[in-house]
Write a structure and sequence with these properties.
The chain is mainly α. 61% of the residues lie in helices and 11% in strands.
């Protein structure tokens, strides 16, 4: 994923649904997002329109039915987000980000 496209946290919720479930119909996408977020259909459609405008999601007719597909792999998205975080907080130094994350993890209570 090129660093030029910014995906908001809200838009990311739609991408997560598509990565988790694969291509979805409009109704399926709304239902899947609403399992995790208390958003109305209009909000989800607005976010979807933004993702399509950014060319991160595409709509395609399959056997007469509309389905939405992510155009970016989750791995590439995560790498881009981590690189942006490292750039913003650590001057692009991924090793410094990793060391910071490791230190924070040591301070957290152990998971059961």
């Amino acid at each position: 994923m090129s660093g030029a496209v910014h995906v908001t946290e809200a838009e990311g919720a739609l991408l997560e649904a598509l990565w988790r479930c694969g291509p979805l119909s409009p109704r399926g996408l709304v239902a899947e997002v609403q399992r995790a977020r208390p958003w109305g259909q209009a909000t989800i459609k607005t976010l979807l329109a933004r993702l399509m405008h950014k060319r991160v999601v595409r709509a395609q007719r399959e056997a007469g039915a509309l389905r939405y597909h992510p155009l970016v792999e989750r791995q590439a998205f995560v790498e881009s987000e981590v690189a942006a975080l490292a750039e913003r907080l650590f001057g692009g130094d991924l090793a410094a980000l990793a060391a910071f994350a490791s230190e924070c993890a040591r301070k957290l209570p152990a998971r059961a």
